[in-house]
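Work Package 4 report. The design task specified in the project plan requires that, given a folded chain encoded as structure tokens, an amino acid be chosen for each position. We show below one input record used in the internal validation round.
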């Protein structure tokens, strides 16, 4: 309907949008949420739980407004229901009942909510539809239909069906102390919703299986407002792992927690296992050039009582690194059947000539006056009879100073010293495996555990004995003469910096075996790794993509340079204090050392200047 009015000579047309439809428009209003008789909430965000003991309803009412904006009475029967707008995986799913409003009857009612699946909040709206045989929808200016779905929608509200509250373990794997029976302990479970209305009894029941851990877990009652519940247990027998399942049930007629649905398949069950401590030998692998080695046996934590962990360590010699690895990967405190320290040398014996004499018949020298020409004499002739000699055995047993160990209270590591029993009489490489075993009586947490480490000893006659007295053998007066480095490379492998040991990533190190090189992730590049110097960018052979723009036109094919570089001259070593002082005196005038100082004082009108 349009109305035209004149205002200050202007024609103004006002349109009443409500009259573009029928004369009377009905709407549904959501008044609140609650039980069939009471409204528990009149906000726009409603929620209820699967465990609610009573049905939940949306309280609705209907309103019909005419073209003038006045409320009018219902003139036809109307069916009112609600619908869920949002849907999908993870969202709440519910259904709604349909209620009927009759002419002359009440204009308010309750739409019952039937839970289907709990989840996140969804948008919900209600609407009404006229129950006439042929309602005119959408409405027209001449229709008498009061309620059509599209024109009667209520405001949208949020509705959430909460899942039942559950009990969850804070840790899904719980280690119990590996001691004798009657061991007490605690663990924590968490309630997904704070306790409301009535206390909640939490019970945890271990599964029963032959040979598994058996334990008693008393029921704990959580007070109103609680979320974390501390549970206690007593181990009556140790064994294999056991699963424990926890549930909760509201007390005193409460309905918040129920035993049947308070268990979650993944979080309400924990695995109880006997705790196992760890031991290790440090270092795991080492290369040494001395006749002694210090190693550490380390526990994962300090022991609580003296004698809780005790055992023995032993040393075994093997001939190859592969054999050492085999012992390391399968440590045992039973000595191997054969080791290089007990194996007889297999070198074939050598022979050394030993002179001896055997008689030979020969003619004698004679003269005419004294010797009978028919006489004969015996003269000695030399032959050789071989004797057997054996080359010296360069190997030697390695032993541990104090192989038996016992950890005292609050200790978590022990130190062992491995020593070679014989002196080094020739260059030799030996492999020693140290194995330590925890033996009874020890706490079960460590009992029966074994651990090993490998030592590779590269020894020579000129070795540092315990690294305290320097070189103990060899010619101390000898002096190395370095050839002129301008003509002879004196350091073909610069990364080889450790005497008789393989330097990691140094592929030119002669001390690195092929099997060790295969473990390198890469080789040191360039001159430091013993490789040729990189090709200069000016060379025609350069493959550097970032060369000067003139490179395609000109480059250096080869070059001859007479300058070989600057090198230090060979200097004789200093063997006495007199030589040292003389060398210092001859060089003193080559250097000057001076010191100048200037202080500026800022004078203020105070008792003394400030510098």
């Amino acid at each position: 309907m349009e109305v035209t009015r004149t205002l200050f000579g202007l024609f103004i047309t006002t349109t009443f949008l409500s009259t573009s439809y029928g004369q009377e428009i009905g709407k549904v209003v959501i008044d609140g949420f609650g039980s069939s008789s009471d409204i528990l909430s009149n906000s726009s965000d409603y929620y209820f739980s699967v465990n609610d003991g009573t049905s939940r309803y949306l309280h609705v009412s209907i309103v019909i407004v005419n073209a003038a904006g006045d409320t009018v009475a219902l003139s036809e029967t109307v069916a009112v229901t609600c619908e869920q707008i949002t849907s999908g995986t993870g969202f709440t799913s519910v259904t709604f009942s349909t209620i009927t409003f009759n002419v002359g009857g009440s204009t308010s009612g309750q739409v019952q909510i039937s839970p289907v699946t709990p989840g996140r909040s969804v948008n919900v709206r209600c609407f009404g539809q006229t129950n006439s045989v042929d309602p005119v929808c959408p409405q027209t200016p001449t229709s008498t239909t009061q309620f059509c779905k599209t024109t009667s929608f209520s405001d949208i509200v949020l509705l959430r069906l909460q899942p039942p509250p559950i009990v969850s373990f804070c840790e899904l794997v719980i280690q119990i102390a590996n001691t004798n029976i009657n061991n007490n302990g605690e663990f924590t479970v968490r309630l997904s919703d704070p306790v409301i209305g009535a206390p909640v009894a939490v019970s945890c029941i271990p599964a029963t299986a032959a040979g598994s851990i058996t334990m008693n877990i008393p029921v704990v009652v959580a007070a109103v407002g609680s979320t974390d519940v501390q549970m206690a247990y007593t181990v009556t027998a140790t064994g294999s792992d056991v699963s424990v399942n926890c549930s909760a049930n509201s007390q005193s007629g409460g309905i918040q927690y129920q035993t049947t649905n308070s268990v979650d398949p993944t979080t309400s069950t924990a695995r109880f296992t006997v705790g196992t401590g760890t031991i290790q030998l440090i270092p795991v692998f080492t290369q040494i050039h001395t006749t002694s080695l210090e190693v550490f046996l380390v526990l994962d934590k300090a022991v609580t009582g003296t004698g809780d962990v005790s055992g023995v360590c032993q040393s075994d010699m093997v001939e190859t690194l592969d054999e050492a690895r085999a012992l390391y990967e399968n440590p045992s405190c039973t000595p191997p059947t054969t080791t290089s320290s007990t194996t007889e040398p297999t070198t074939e014996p050598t022979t050394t000539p030993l002179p001896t004499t055997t008689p030979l018949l020969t003619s004698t020298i004679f003269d005419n006056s004294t010797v009978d020409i028919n006489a004969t004499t015996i003269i000695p002739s030399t032959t050789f009879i071989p004797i057997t000699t054996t080359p010296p055995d360069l190997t030697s047993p390695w032993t541990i100073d104090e192989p038996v160990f016992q950890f005292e209270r609050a200790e978590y590591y022990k130190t062992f010293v491995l020593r070679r029993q014989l002196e080094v009489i020739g260059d030799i490489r030996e492999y020693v495996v140290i194995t330590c075993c925890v033996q009874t009586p020890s706490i079960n947490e460590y009992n029966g555990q074994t651990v090993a480490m490998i030592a590779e000893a590269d020894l020579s006659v000129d070795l540092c004995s315990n690294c305290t007295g320097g070189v103990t053998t060899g010619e101390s007066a000898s002096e190395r003469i370095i050839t002129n480095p301008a003509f002879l490379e004196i350091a073909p492998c610069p990364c080889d910096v450790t005497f008789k040991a393989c330097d990691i990533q140094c592929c030119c190190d002669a001390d690195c075996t092929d099997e060790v090189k295969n473990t390198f992730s890469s080789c040191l590049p360039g001159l430091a790794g013993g490789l040729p110097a990189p090709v200069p960018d000016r060379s025609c052979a350069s493959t550097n993509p970032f060369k000067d723009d003139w490179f395609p036109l000109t480059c250096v094919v080869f070059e001859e340079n007479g300058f070989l570089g600057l090198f230090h001259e060979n200097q004789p070593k200093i063997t006495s204090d007199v030589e040292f002082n003389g060398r210092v005196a001859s060089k003193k005038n080559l250097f000057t050392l001076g010191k100048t100082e200037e202080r500026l004082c800022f004078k203020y009108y105070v008792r003394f200047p400030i510098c």
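The mean pLDDT is 80. Validation will be extended to a larger panel in the next phase.
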